[in-house]
Amino acid sequence: MLSGRVKTLHPGVHGGILAIRSDASHLKAVADAGISLIDVVAVNLYPFRATVTNEERPPTFDEAVENIDIGGPAMLRAAAKNHAAVTVAVDPADYPEILSRLSSSSEASSSSSGSPPGGGGGEAFRARLAWKAFSHTGSYDAQVAEWMWNAVGDRAVDPASGAQRLAPPPEIVVPMRLSSALRYGENPHQAAAFYEDLSLAEAAPLGGGGVARSVQHHGKEMSYNNYLDADAAYQCVTDLAAPACVIVKHTNPCGAALAAPGSADLRPAYRAAVEADPTSAFGGIVAFNRVVDEELAADIREFRSPSDGETRMFYEIVVAPGYTPAGLEKLKGKSKALRILEAPPRARGKASRSLRQVGGGWLLQESDAVCAEDVEFTVVSKAQPTEEMLKDLRFAWTVAKHVKSNAIAVAKGGELLGMGSGQPNRVESTRLALGKAGPEAAKGSAMASDAFFPFSWGDSVEAACLAGVAAIAHPGGSMRDQDAVDCCDKYGVVLCTTGVRHFRH
Fold this sequence. Notes:
- The chain is an alpha/beta fold.
- The chain folds into three domains: 39-152, Methylglyoxal synthase-like domain (Rossmann fold, 3-Layer(aba) Sandwich); 203-342, AICAR transformylase, duplication domain (Cytidine Deaminase, domain 2, 3-Layer(aba) Sandwich), CATH 3.40.140.20; 370-497, AICAR transformylase, duplication domain (Cytidine Deaminase, domain 2), CATH 3.40.140.20.
- 36% of the residues lie in helices and 19% in strands.
- The chain contains 17 helices and 20 strands.
- The protein has helices spanning 11-18, 24-32, 48-52, 61-66, 71-81, 95-109, 123-152, 198-201, 224-238, 267-276, 278-281, 294-302, 325-332, 387-401, 426-437, 457-467, 481-491, and strands at 40-42, 87-89, 155-157, 164-166, 176-182, 192-197, 215-218, 244-249, 252-258, 284-288, 315-320, 339-342, 353-358, 361-366, 378-379, 408-412, 415-420, 446-449, 471-474, 494-497.
- The strands form six sheets. It has a six-stranded mixed sheet, with helices on both faces. A six-stranded mixed sheet has the order 15-20-19-18-16-17.
């Protein structure tokens, strides 16, 4: 009926939704069939994502399938298609305005010969609600498709590990919702916005924590670069199991330190992170993996630059998993502009989807979720590491994972001394890291590389040995690995391989 608008759908419902009010044949058809016109359609779809991400009671495959809404999307799509006459509601936040417009139109119709279509309010308003409905059902279907591919998609054997991995889906749709419009992008002439990935919005235990779920308690609006830097800092600090502080500038950790073993006091770690590179830390992002209390907040508020002992340190953002009420109030007093974010931590060791755009397409990969506890540091040198050396190697290795390649990190006593990042060759990164550490601090330190030392072992490995580095870790895998071993044996330096590479482009 209705010129073919209703074929397989129940006319009692969809005839009343889809009838074109200006088409006399449509109105006669529904009248002859005894069908009432429907002017408003409001639907809340089955909570599919919440169902399939319920870790307390994971659903069976059949239970998940039963939570796929069919009738709801059908009615929403029908109402959205006929938005010229029908008001469609998918978001409870829109209910007040819809009710207000319905009330106004009801009052208007009582003094006229008939009521305007869709309860009134204007076709532009209904068209916007229709767009929202199509976006909503599209996002819903994308979430169902993603879950179903995870359940029934093709598996392939990983040649490196021998484990089965889920093959890439032939098609992919990423459901996203506008979180905020940004003043500009990386530069003032670039428009920008921040979107929330809805496939992770209800799945924080599955890796959906982090900056996108954060609550801003204070400060100026977040910018494009703020989000990038805050994410880099929080990703790094939540990769550390012990209480820690990480300071980031331009997405690279410039300072990082652990609290003393057995201590929850983060004040020494914060100070050590600043002292690693005070110049870079100024204007950076400070991240913690524990709650910020009043004492720590007071340190952040009052700490003066080690460079001159007078200038109070300035930061763009402080991000942590929580704040005590007194700590939050103390921190707010540092600056009206300081952005204070409270973010749920990422689930350590759980990979999630990572997408990156290139010209004309997208690259998809699993996030790098390998943690230091998952890696075996195999000693390949004659010299054997002490327990303290291994702790420093693991710490340096974790920090290097979050430094742009080619990445080198030098650490000692749970503190980052220096790092080299983003250089086109590892030799230069090593030189920068050792230079930032300084000749005295580098003695007895640990050095980690994100990838193996290839043909320049004499420049990189020997430079570290000559600087007094006591232990080195790299993935291994180069045809010249033995050259690095021989060099370390020559100087009595510990060399470990991890078998895990951490390129970060």
